[in-house]
């Protein structure tokens, strides 16, 4: 059996506090959620960016935001943390926001941010870069956008908000900035006792190829916290880079 690279080796950052490193497949490691195994990494296909091989064999991703006690007690906005799992509940990655205190608490949900997505060996395999932009239909020249990098520093795609007077709409672009897919949401983006679905469509918007959903978390969580749970569905044969872009889109639009 090959010896696995330790966390922090060769420039790879160790996972942030609260997310222990585990070696595949393992469960019930000290410091992590009991009974949550890591997904076993499949063999990486040709030309697959390192760390994205996990996405090659899945057509659904579940994202669970972690409850932060400080936010619950006093409403102080902290860096968000997420667990990213497959449909079997196995952990694929963890994601951590890297934003300063002033930006988090002054700019709200439209704040500029960097989200680092890390695998079980402590490697930062995906980086999401979100600049400061407006989300209002009154400012069509400065709408939301996101750059997805895999590995960090190498763009694989972009999510760009498209102006519409009523509906939240986004364009999915590849690493060359070419339009690939469209994302369209409902007029009212509010999970009032139900899920909110954004449809992933072909460029002509005639064919639905997947969806991104915000799942209803229950009255207590919805009212007293900003903790969210998301789901992403896409074709299993979708290009692995586009799967990473879809993952990034979830953090931007919901």
From TrEMBL:
Region (Disordered) residue spans: 1-34
Cofactors (names): Ca(2+)
Database matches in InterPro entries: Scramblase
UniProt-listed PANTHER family: PHOSPHOLIPID SCRAMBLASE 1 (PTHR23248:SF38), PHOSPHOLIPID SCRAMBLASE-RELATED (PTHR23248)
Annotated function: May mediate accelerated ATP-independent bidirectional transbilayer migration of phospholipids upon binding calcium ions that results in a loss of phospholipid asymmetry in the plasma membrane.
Localization terms from the record: Membrane
Stretch forming the signal peptide: none
A single GO cellular-component term on record: plasma membrane
Pfam family of the protein (one): Scramblase
Record organism: Trichechus manatus latirostris (Florida manatee)
Keywords from the named record: Calcium, Lipoprotein, Membrane, Palmitate, Phosphoprotein, Transmembrane, Transmembrane helix
Family statement: Belongs to the phospholipid scramblase family.
Alphabetized GO MF terms: phospholipid scramblase activity
Lipid bilayer topology: Single-pass type II membrane protein
Descriptive protein name: Phospholipid scramblase
């Amino acid at each position: 059996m090959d010896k696995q690279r330790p966390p922090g080796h060769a420039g790879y950052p160790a996972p942030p506090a609260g997310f222990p490193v585990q070696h595949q497949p393992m469960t019930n490691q000290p410091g992590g959620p009991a009974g949550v195994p890591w997904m076993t990494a499949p063999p990486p296909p040709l030309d697959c960016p390192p760390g994205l091989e996990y996405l090659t064999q899945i057509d659904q991703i579940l994202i669970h935001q972690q409850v932060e006690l400080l936010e619950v007690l006093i409403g102080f906005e902290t860096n968000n943390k997420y667990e990213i799992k497959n449909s079997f509940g196995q952990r694929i990655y963890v994601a951590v926001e890297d934003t300063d205190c002033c930006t988090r608490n002054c700019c709200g949900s439209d704040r500029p941010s960097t989200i680092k997505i890390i695998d079980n060996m402590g490697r930062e395999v995906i980086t999401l870069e979100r600049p400061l932009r407006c989300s209002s239909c009154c400012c069509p020249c400065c709408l939301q956008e996101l750059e997805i990098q895999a590995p960090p520093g190498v763009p694989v795609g972009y999510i760009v908000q498209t102006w519409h007077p009523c509906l939240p709409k986004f364009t999915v672009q590849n690493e060359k900035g070419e339009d690939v897919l469209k994302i369209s949401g409902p007029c009212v983006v509010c999970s009032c006792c139900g899920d909110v679905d954004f449809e992933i469509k072909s460029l002509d918007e005639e064919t639905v190829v997947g969806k991104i959903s915000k799942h209803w978390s229950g009255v207590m969580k919805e009212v007293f916290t900003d903790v969210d749970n998301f789901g992403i569905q896409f074709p299993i044969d979708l290009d692995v880079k586009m799967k990473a872009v879809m993952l990034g889109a979830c953090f931007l639009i919901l």
